[in-house]
C-alpha cells in the first residue's frame, strides 16, 4: 500500500499503520483522515493480517488537527463544514468497527483528535512519558466527533473533567482511569505492543471478530431475559462452527489450533 502521509508495515500477522507527518507532529488533515480510512478497510480484507497497530512517526503519536487545515475550515460554508466533519467521523467509525483487534501505540502526545484515535482502538499501550489532552474548549470548540469513543473509553465522570478543563492527562492517570490498558516502561513500548499482539493472534480469527461485536452489543444493553437468551444462542452457534469445533478439539487433544503457526 502506498500513501502520502501513512506508512504500512506488515510483519507476519501484524500490520502497523504509521502516521507519517513527523514535521507537523502527525497532525490530522483531510488527506490523512482519508488515508487512515482506506488503509484500515484494505487491511480488514487481508486474511493474513490478524492485528492492526496504529502508531506515529517522530516525537509524538498525534497532536490533533493540522493548523493549515483549521485555517481552511474557517472559510467553509455550513455544507462544507458538515462534509469535512464527516471525514473524521467516518475514519473513527471505520477504525472502531474494524473486525480485527486494534492497538494504539501512544508515545509523546495524543491531543484532541489524536486522543480520539487512541480511544477508537481496542487496546491502548502508552509510554510513561506520554500525555493526553482534550484541548478543544481552549479554542472555543467541542470534542464532538470523538466524544462517543472517548466517553466510552475514559468514562463519563472523567470525561466531564477533562473535556471541560482541557487539563493534560499523564500516562499514569490515563492508566488509572482505564483509558490506557498497558503502561510500559521507558523504551519498551514495542515489546509491550508485540506481547499483546502475540496474545491476540493466539485467538481464533472469527472468535475475535465475534467477541468484539459481542462486547459492543452487551456494553450498551440492559441485563434482561432477552439478552441472556441472545448470548446463550450466540455461544451455541459458535460451538457448532468449524472454528469452534477446531478450537475445542485442539484443546482436548493438547495441540495448537489450526490458526496458530
Question: Can you characterise this structure?
Answer:
By secondary structure, this protein is α/β, with parallel strands linked by helices. It has eleven helices and nine strands. The strands form two sheets. Strands 1-2-3-4-6-9 form a six-stranded mixed β-sheet, with helices on both faces.
Brief rundown of the structure:
This protein has helices at 30-44, 67-73, 78-97, 113-119, 147-154, 156-165, 171-176, 189-201, 205-219, 225-239, 242-252, and strands at 6-11, 14-19, 51-56, 102-106, 109-111, 123-126, 131-133, 168-170, 182-183. The protein is of the alpha/beta class and 261 residues long. The protein is globular.
Strand percent estimate:
5-15%
Give the overall average pLDDT: 93
Record field, number of beta strands: 9
**Multimer state:** single chain
Main β-sheet: number of strands, strand sense, barrel status? 6 strands, mixed
Q: Work out the radius of gyration.
A: 19 Å
Order the strands across the largest sheet as they lie in space.
1-2-3-4-6-9
Distance between the termini: 25 Å
The 3D shape can be described as globular
Which spans of ≥5 residues are poorly predicted at pLDDT below 50? none
Helix/sheet category: alpha/beta
Order of helices and strands: EEHEHHEEHEEHHEHEHHHH
How many helix segments?
11
Q: Residue share in helices? A: 40-55%
Outline the fold blueprint.
Layout lengths: L5 E6 L2 E6 L10 H15 L6 E6 L10 H7 L4 H20 L4 E5 L2 E3 L1 H7 L3 E4 L4 E3 L13 H8 L1 H10 L2 E3 H6 L5 E2 L5 H13 L3 H15 L5 H15 L2 H11 L9
Parallel strand pairs: 2-3, 3-4, 4-6, 5-7, 6-9
Antiparallel strand pairs: 1-2, 7-8
Amino acid at each position: 500500500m502506498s500513501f502520502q502521509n501513512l506508512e504500512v508495515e506488515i510483519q507476519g500477522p501484524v500490520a502497523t499503520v504509521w502516521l507519517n507527518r513527523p514535521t507537523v507532529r502527525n497532525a490530522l488533515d483531510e488527506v490523512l483522515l482519508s488515508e487512515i480510512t482506506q488503509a484500515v478497510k484494505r487491511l480488514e480484507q487481508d486474511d493474513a493480517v490478524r492485528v492492526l497497530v496504529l502508531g506515529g512517526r517522530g516525537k509524538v503519536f498525534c497532536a490533533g488537527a493540522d493548523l493549515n487545515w483549521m485555517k481552511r475550515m474557517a472559510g467553509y460554508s455550513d455544507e462544507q463544514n458538515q462534509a469535512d466533519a464527516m471525514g473524521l467521523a467516518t475514519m473513527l467509525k471505520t477504525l472502531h468497527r474494524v473486525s480485527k483487534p486494534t492497538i494504539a501505540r501512544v508515545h509523546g502526545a495524543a491531543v484532541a483528535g489524536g486522543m480520539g484515535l487512541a480511544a477508537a482502538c481496542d487496546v491502548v499501550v502508552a509510554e510513561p512519558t506520554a500525555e493526553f489532552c482534550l484541548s478543544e474548549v481552549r479554542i472555543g470548540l467541542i470534542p464532538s466527533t470523538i466524544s462517543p469513543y472517548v466517553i466510552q473509553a475514559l468514562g463519563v465522570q472523567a470525561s466531564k473533567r477533562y473535556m471541560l478543563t482541557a487539563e493534560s492527562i499523564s500516562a499514569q492517570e490515563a492508566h488509572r482511569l482505564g483509558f490506557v490498558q498497558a503502561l510500559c516502561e521507558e523504551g519498551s513500548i514495542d515489546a509491550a505492543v508485540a506481547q499483546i499482539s502475540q496474545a491476540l493472534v493466539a485467538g481464533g480469527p472469527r472468535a475475535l471478530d465475534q467477541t468484539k461485536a459481542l462486547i459492543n452489543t452487551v456494553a450498551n444493553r440492559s441485563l434482561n431475559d432477552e439478552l441472556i437468551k441472545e448470548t446463550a444462542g450466540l455461544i451455541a452457534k459458535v460451538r457448532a462452527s468449524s472454528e469452534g469445533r477446531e478450537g475445542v478439539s485442539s484443546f482436548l487433544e493438547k495441540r495448537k489450533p489450526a490458526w496458530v503457526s
